Amino acid sequence: MCVVMKQWSKIGFFLIAFVVWTIAGCVPVEEKVPAPFKTSIHQPGVRKIYEMQTRQDKDSLLISLKSDDPSIRYAAARAFASYQDSTALNALFPLLSDEQGQVRAMAAIAIGQIGSLKAEAQLTAAFDGRDSARLYEEANSDILEAMGKTGSTQFLRDLGTISTYQPTDTLLLLGQVRGIYRYSMRNKVDPESTTTMVRYLSDAALPPEVRLVAANYLHRAAGLDLAPHAEQLIAIWQSESDPFLRMCIATALGKLKTSTASKLLSESLSTESNDLVKCNIIRALQTFDYNDVQKDILDETKDSHAGPAEVAAQYFVNLGKEQDANRYKSAMDQCKTWQAKTRMAEAANKYMSSMFSSAKTALSKEIQASMNAATNVYEKAAWLKAWGSDIRNFESLPQYIQPDQSIVIRTQAVTSLIDVCKDNNFDVYFAGQGYLIRSQIGGYLANAMRGGDAGILALIAGGISDPKTGLKGVMSDRKGELSKALANLKLPE
């Protein structure tokens, strides 16, 4: 009897197990639904990442890089693009192979922003050269640009000689030219890369955004040898009509430093109709000898358009000559815009020697009268700048940093006080009293700090940090005031 019962027990167990297995097999397996890719700040999770970024909560951000939600991974990577910390690199590298292409792209951007040479190998390995379906074309583009921020000179040569991209490969072409451009911002240039950029600029069949980056490379990169491309640049200048490209080409022509380029630019001043291009022509002419270009530039100060007139006048503030100070005063009276008039007044006041006491006195009275008569706060600030260009007027500037003054006026007064300390003639004018004068100016700046304006505090902090001002030493006994000003600021101020 016991044996029979045991057998039935076993049979019953297997029957029950079979039924349970059968029922379980009928229930469909629950598939994991991927989280939607939404990076708007209105998404609670994304908004939380922004808050972590503001607090610079690195530990939480690192955890978020491993989230199952691609939106969160993207937002966390973007946070590290702003909050740059090289210790986050190892956590960012895996995202270069993320299944979501936009996450890959943002990881590349963040790694590029961190700018560590350590990233070169990882970025190179992550570039997907077999992406025939163009699923990761955006990521590939951002990887090329990131290499420009982190890579070695050898990769620059490789980047500059890529010749397989077609006009339809917009993102890859953008990655290439942006990468070369980013290298140049690190003072790394290569002749073959420059040749590529000139060729891209001259090719009207390429996407406009690619040509624009190439043009900006020629405009901004230092240390370029453009002599081999002189004829090509002149030809582009004569045929190109896009003002944004012409702005850059004008600067490139200035880098040629040839009489042909100088003549071409000078002649273009009378025919150019776009103010932006005209401003850059004037800036390009400033690279040539003063005696060769000063007449043409002085004529431009009389332009009825404020932009070109002010740029022309600023040339004489920066590179004026003492022997021409009276000419600057005469030109000031012929200016048609207050922007140019105030700059020419600044140049005259800066370079006019006190030996011409009557002319200097007359100029000072005219500047003060114009400043008092100005109804536009920006014009008044420009006259104040002209007044402060004579560093011996520094003691009159503190009245303009009082709380009752406009923030525009206060900012200019603080800027002028800092500029006094940086003036090349400071030690000549204040022989033997340099430390005392700087201490006096430091006291004025301390008063300005008490206003609590974040912009003015940033301006003063920059002045103290700048070794040219000599303010760091005289402000060392005011650390308490600096700490108090810092404590009163709230993020992100």
Report a brief summary of the structure:
By secondary structure, the chain is mainly α. 67% of the residues lie in helices and 0% in strands.
Task: Report on this structure.
The chain is mostly helical and 493 residues long. Helices cover 67% and strands 0% of the residues. It contains 28 helices and no strands. Helix 20 runs parallel beside helix 22. The N terminus is likely disordered.
Reconstruct the topology from this structure:
Blueprint: H1 2-26, H2 44-55, H3 58-64, H4 70-82, H5 89-92, H6 101-114, H7 120-126, H8 137-150, H9 153-160, H10 170-185, H11 191-202, H12 208-220, H13 230-239, H14 243-254, H15 259-269, H16 275-285, H17 290-300, H18 306-319, H19 325-334, H20 338-351, H21 357-373, H22 377-388, H23 407-422, H24 426-429, H25 434-449, H26 454-465, H27 471-474, H28 479-487
Envelope shape: globular
Strand content: under 5%
The value of Rg in angstroms is: 32 Å
What share of residues is helical?
55-70%
Question: How do the helices and strands follow one another from N- to C-terminus?
Answer: HHHHHHHHHHHHHHHHHHHHHHHHHHHH
Query: How many beta-strand runs?
Result: 0
Pick out the low-confidence regions. 1-11, 13-24
Structural class: mainly alpha
Question: Number of helical runs?
Answer: 28
Describe this protein with a few key phrases:
493 residues; mainly alpha; 28 helices
